[in-house]
Amino acid sequence: MRTEDESLLRRAVEIAAAAVEGGDAPYGSLLAAEDGTILVEAHNTVRRDDDITAHPELKLARWAAQHLDAATAARTTMYTSCQPCEMCTGALARSGLGRVVYALASAQLAELAPGSGWPVVPQEGPNLFDEARVPIDHHQRVLAERRG
Prior knowledge:
This protein is an alpha+beta fold. The chain has seven helices and four strands. The chain has helices at residues 6-21, 46-49, 56-67, 70-74, 86-95, 106-112, 129-147; strands at residues 28-32, 38-43, 77-82, 99-104. The protein has a four-stranded mixed β-sheet with strand order 2-1-3-4, sandwiched between helices. Helix 3 (56-67) runs parallel beside helix 5 (86-95).
C-alpha cells in the first residue's frame, strides 16, 4: 500500500463504522479517481434493502460501469474495509476498475466474526455441450456481422 492510500482506506473503514451505527452490516467502500478525489461512497445495505447483492463493492462496480468510460475506470482505485467477496470480485473485474485496496482480508474477517463465511454450493457440469453452444455460436455470428 502506498502512503497516499492510507487516508482513503481509513475513510472506507469510517464508512463501515457509520453503517453499523445506521443498523447496517459493517462494510464500507469508496471509489477514487487517479488524483485521490472521491468519486462515490457506499456501504453494505443487505439487511435494509433485503437484497443479498447490496454489497458496497458491487454498488461501486455498477456505478463505475454506468458512469465511467473504460480508460477512466482503469485509473480508479477502490478502497474497501474488507476484501471483496467472490461475487464482488467478479463485478470488479467486469467493471474495469484499476485497483482495489482493502483493510481486512477474508481470513481475518473469519477470525473476527466466526461463521461469517459462505457455504459452498455444489456445481455439476459441464453438461449438454452441443445444445448449450447454440446460443453462444449464434451470438458470435451476430457480433461478427455487426463488425463487418
